[in-house]
Amino acid sequence: MCKKAAKPIPVMILNIGMSSNRIYFKGLSALRFFAATAVIFHHIEQYKYWQGHASIWGAAGWVGNFVDALGHKAVSFFFVLSGFLITYLLLAELNKTGTVALKKFYLRRVLRIWPLYYLVALTALFVLPAITQFAQWEPLMKENFGMVVFLYLIILPNLLRITPVQVVGANQAWSVGVEEQFYLIWPLLVRWFHKRLPMFLVLFIFIKMGIQLFFGWGEGYFEGTTAKVSGQLATLLGHMQIEQMAIGGFGAWWLFVKNQKVLNLLYHPVVHAAAWLFFATFFVWKYHFFGSTLFEGTVFLLIILNVSTNPKFPLNLEAKFLTHMGNISYGIYMLHTLVIALLLQLLEQWQLPAIWLNLGLYVLAPAFTFLLAHVSYKYFESYFLRFKDKFSVVESSSK
């Protein structure tokens, strides 16, 4: 480890609308809000399906793909955005101090992620089962309750992705687990390899995808238990989309060192338009091929860079409302399945016709989620965020 960078990396501080000592990327709060809201509609259909209601979740054709894409592509976007922001902030810290203060980094992540994560997880595990009934999953939860609680407590909920167990009210937390595991190693890796970061990112992606490919191949090559374990590991790595976070790291590097040739290419109107066109196809084209996460990650990185740093981007996404909704987007993401589960049970008790049940879910679930996320941010999360600011080395306006 080097305590001081031999050659400081040139820093670019983006301070649109903010004080000059803070790093801020315009428009990203709005994108976070849009992505978190998309996940709500994905899970409305999923929870309806679990309860035996008519649902388009898992349906064939573009309609089913649209609902699937609302959730899964939104999560991919969050992975790319996380890699982009975290890598940029780490580079800025290296430029400022010559190193990365690991203890402060981990404390910032704990204070931002853990309080709401544990509140939602404990509510879903111990409170929700007492007041709701999701018959399809209750037997599995009872049989594996100890394992489920343990995995949530140590922030490894993504390991449940290789099992049939679903934690109603907290099943979306798997992606938080992936991000926290990424955060555990990423500051160390950036500190070690920041001088050759693009080369390291290529190698990182190659190794991750290579290991995933090996286990996928092993599922068909081996037999018995070995084949089963190999398949489970391939599935687990498939959901651990850290290659998309590494793609976000590429964008952070190009922006940080002001690689104008690369940026001009990414800002080119044809490239920019192609990114939005490919983005639109996510919702109508059902595809699955090895490496598709790299394709999606590249599309999302192009959108992130153009929205936040391209001076010719035509839309203004800096409305006060959108900024606030972006700030509470973590709460929206973590709280929405609790709201859906409770609301669905309440509407079922009223024995409403399907049209009124759907109308109630699609209107009330987002409304109550936004309200609850606002309350959580103002009266619960903000308490911990005040402490988080004390451990900042490079100030960021992103909450």
What does this entry look like structurally?
It is built from 15 helices and no strands. It has helices at 28-50, 61-97, 102-131, 138-143, 145-153, 174-193, 197-221, 224-239, 242-256, 260-267, 269-281, 292-309, 320-327, 329-349, 354-390. The protein is globular, with a radius of gyration of 21 Å. The protein starts with 27 loop residues before the first helix and ends in a 9-residue tail after the last helix.
Features:
disordered N terminus; 15 helices; 399 residues; mainly alpha
How would you concisely characterize the structure shown here?
With 399 residues, the chain is mostly helical. Helices cover 72% and strands 0% of the residues.
Rg for CA atoms: 21 Å
Strand content: under 5%
Q: What is the number of helices?
A: 15
Give the number of domains. Answer: 1
Question: What global shape is seen?
Answer: globular
Q: Taking all residues together, what is the mean pLDDT?
A: 90
| N-to-C order of helices and strands | HHHHHHHHHHHHHHH
Q: What would you call the structural class?
A: mainly alpha
User: How many strand units?
Assistant: 0
Q: How many angstroms separate the termini?
A: 29 Å
The helical percent reads over 70%
